[in-house]
Amino acid sequence: MRNLRTVLAEAGGAPEHIAQMTWYVLDIDQYRAVLRELGIVYREIMGHHYPAMVLVEVTGLVEPAAIVEIAATAILPPGCTLAADDRPTRELIPQVQSSERLTTEGRYE
User: Fold this and answer.
1) pTM over the 0.85 mark
2) What is the pLDDT of residue 94?
3) How many domains does the chain have?
């Protein structure tokens, strides 16, 4: 989630610009078991913005050590400023839609 905030900030956005998030988890029961703790971390990083969310249980993720992968789509308002290097928005779009993984050790990548 920190990666998502960083990419959004680079594009001139913020967590409230996230329109949709898809969470891919290896074990839905494990996800439910830590939902309270995950909610605390979510609010610390993303605030009290809750976009449309989808939870999908999958059999595997790209990163072998990951137990969750998050994909997000953000809609930036007109006039958002770009990072200091003025990269075109089209170069930031793949990053905004990139995934983030929580490893089995409990750290986000």
Assistant:
1) no
2) 39
3) 1
